[in-house]
């Protein structure tokens, strides 16, 4: 008779979760005495699976689940970028309300740095790890991150991604394609037809989603953006400046330029001025994010406004409180039209 009891000590929490058909986080909370409530039917399934497999709970995991670990690890792209800073501010506010301490790692976009930072953070047994970096379009990058993050979930820690999460993880998705498409629609309504896109690094999923959304919106209206007018560049002020400089040096002078982040758009405006032109009058400019520093930008920048602090708060909530699979509605942005995209004359 098969009693489903592997050799003593060989059964992991992952085995129990798989047997019960639940996430690692739910299995940990069911067995390790978490303060967060697990539905009774799930708790019984997990406990029954543990009994069949002969699983013995890890004492350190119990301490984590009960909240003895009061830290939250945050992996973010660039703390100097106002976009990440605003999300981090929301996380910090929410963590403070829960009496948790936040540890941050600013890692840029290199996968090696992301994985190395995860390994270091994991060693401190944080109660949750929040991934606010842009995922790469290469699936292999997700696999490397998942290996480290599975180890976090194995001891009972929570994990959540900003944006669409890899298979098996939860997150706070953002409707980047729809948001950028809505921006294109409103700019078309202002009379813009001849456009260019500063698309950011092609390997970053967030930048690609925003660019695709805008390009699709223009194409549907019969105004496709030629490949020569889709320029890659770093997601920074200097990246936007360099990309815009290259565009103007090619002899191209579009009616409007869309940059996939506000900081790139600010750089593009500086490049336009350096060429002796005026943003908004000679070349219209639009961005994405609605970062706080736009209050000091002239002309006011048209953009897609995201509730960045609220996204940070939701991210922590999902990582700590999700027991139902992490289903959450994608965040929709709001198009904000300002002086950088005046209505074009007929």
UniProtKB/TrEMBL annotation:
> CDD domains from the entry?
HTH_LacI, PBP1_LacI_sugar_binding-like
InterPro entries documented for this protein: HTH_LacI (IPR000843), LacI/GalR-like_sensor (IPR046335), Lambda_DNA-bd_dom_sf (IPR010982), Peripla_BP_I (IPR028082)
Q: Which SMART domains match?
A: HTH_LACI
Q: Name one Pfam family in it.
A: LacI
Keywords (alphabetical) are:
DNA-binding, Transcription, Transcription regulation
Keyword Transcription assigned: yes
What's one GO MF term for it?
DNA-binding transcription factor activity
The name of this protein is LacI family transcriptional regulator
């Amino acid at each position: 008779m098969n009693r489903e009891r592997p050799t003593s000590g060989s059964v992991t929490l992952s085995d129990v979760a798989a047997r019960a058909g639940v996430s690692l986080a739910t299995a940990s909370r069911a067995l390790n005495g978490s303060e967060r409530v697990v539905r009774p039917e799930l708790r019984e399934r997990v406990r029954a699976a543990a009994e069949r497999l002969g699983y013995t709970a890890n004492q350190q995991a119990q301490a984590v689940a009960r909240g003895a670990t009061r830290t939250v690890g945050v992996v973010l792209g660039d703390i100097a970028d106002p976009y990440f800073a605003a999300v981090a501010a929301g996380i910090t506010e929410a963590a403070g309300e829960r009496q948790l301490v936040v540890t941050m790692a600013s890692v840029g976009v290199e996968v090696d740095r992301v994985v190395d930072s995860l390994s270091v953070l994991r060693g401190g047994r944080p109660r949750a790890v929040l991934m606010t970096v842009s995922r790469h379009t290469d699936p292999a990058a997700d696999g490397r991150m998942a290996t480290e993050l599975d180890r976090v979930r194995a001891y009972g820690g929570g994990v959540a991604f900003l944006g669409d999460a890899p298979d098996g993880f939860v997150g706070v998705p953002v409707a980047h394609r729809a948001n950028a498409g809505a921006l294109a629609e409103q700019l078309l309504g202002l009379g813009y037809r001849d456009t260019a896109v500063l698309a950011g690094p092609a390997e970053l999923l967030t930048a690609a989603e925003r660019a695709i959304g805008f390009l699709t919106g223009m194409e549907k209206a019969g105004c496709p953006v030629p490949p020569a007018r889709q320029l890659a560049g770093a997601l920074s002020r200097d990246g936007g400046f360099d990309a815009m400089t290259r565009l103007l040096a090619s002899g191209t002078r579009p009616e409007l330029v869309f940059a996939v982040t506000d900081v790139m758009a600010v750089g593009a405006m500086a490049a336009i001025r350096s060429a002796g032109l005026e943003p908004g009058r000679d070349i219209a400019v639009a961005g994405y994010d609605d970062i706080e520093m736009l209050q000091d930008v002239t002309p006011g920048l048209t953009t897609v406004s995201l509730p960045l602090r609220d996204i940070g708060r939701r991210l922590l909530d999902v990582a700590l409180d999700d027991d139902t699979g992490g289903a959450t509605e994608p965040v929709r942005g709001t198009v904000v039209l300002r002086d950088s995209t005046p209505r074009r004359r007929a």
